[in-house]
Amino acid sequence: MKKCIILANGKPPKKNIISFFQGRGFDTLICADGGANSAMKMNLIPDLIIGDLDSISTEALRKFKLVSKIIEIKRQNDTDVEKCLKYAMKKEFGEAILIGVTGNRLDHTFCNLGIVLKFFPQINLSLVAEDSFLKPVKGNMKLKTFIGETISFYGINKKTKFTSKGLKYPLKNISLPFGVKESTSNVATKNIVELKIKNGTGFVIRDLTTMIKHDLF
Q1: 104-112 contacts, C-beta under 8 A, 24 or more apart
Q2: 99 φ, ψ to 5°?
Q3: Which DSSP symbol is given to 47?
Q4: How many CB atoms lie within 10 A of CB 206?
Q5: Residue 67 to residue 185: CA distance in whole angstroms
Q6: Which residues pair with 70 in a beta bridge?
Q7: Which one of 26, 89, 99, 125 counts the least CB within 10 Å of its CB?
Q8: pLDDT tens per residue, the chain (217 residues)?
């Protein structure tokens, strides 16, 4: 399965985070417009730069124009991250990690969380924000974990119900609608946490450094 990293123009990650996922098969780096500025600072060469090109610096554009494929899409109905995801799906990528999609602007952060919901499960998505790893979940699934790991669960609406096995605070066909109820800082009591999510999609948020240390991918 083809995998890619989409690097946006928000708060940039540490370079070793990019390197970690590249070592896990996410070997195509797509920059969403100004994400190329972050790539340049980290001495990374994007495979593609996609967007309306209003955020990429002149220096980055000059540096990458001969070594990266640059696709200018003026269409304003989509954000640059959406343009990258649509390109990835067209090229049959099965999985993407969104990085640099959070930062100082809360509206951009909120928008990109919505994008995760919009495009999942058309493409398997994850989102990295500093030390957090967010994964959308639906249906029946198992999380590889370890006893004592802190894991948080969030729903979107009242229709979506969570049931779990292997958590200190069990979820028993419960809804976790945004702004009403959540399961923040739950704790794994087994090495595998089983989830059943009905009638919609939820978010699981975990500590990225912990996941890397314990090889939980």
Answers
A1: 104/10, 104/11, 105/10, 108/10, 109/10, 111/79, 112/8, 112/10, 112/79, 112/81
A2: -130, 145
A3: S
A4: 20
A5: 44
A6: 49
A7: 89
A8: 999 999 999 998 999 999 999 999 999 999 999 999 999 999 999 999 999 999 999 999 999 999 999 999 988 889 999 999 999 999 999 999 999 999 888 898 999 999 999 999 899 999 999 999 999 999 999 999 999 999 999 999 999 999 999 999 999 999 999 999 999 999 999 999 999 999 999 999 999 999 999 999 9
Question: Can you list the domains of the chain with their CATH numbers?
Answer: 2-130 (3.40.50.10240), 135-213 (2.60.120.320)
Tokens of 203: 């978010």
Number of Cβ within a 10 Å radius of residue 101? 27
* Three-state secondary-structure class, residue 165: strand
Name the pTM for this structure: 0.96
Residue with tokens 């959308």: 136
The identity of residue 168, as a single letter, is: K
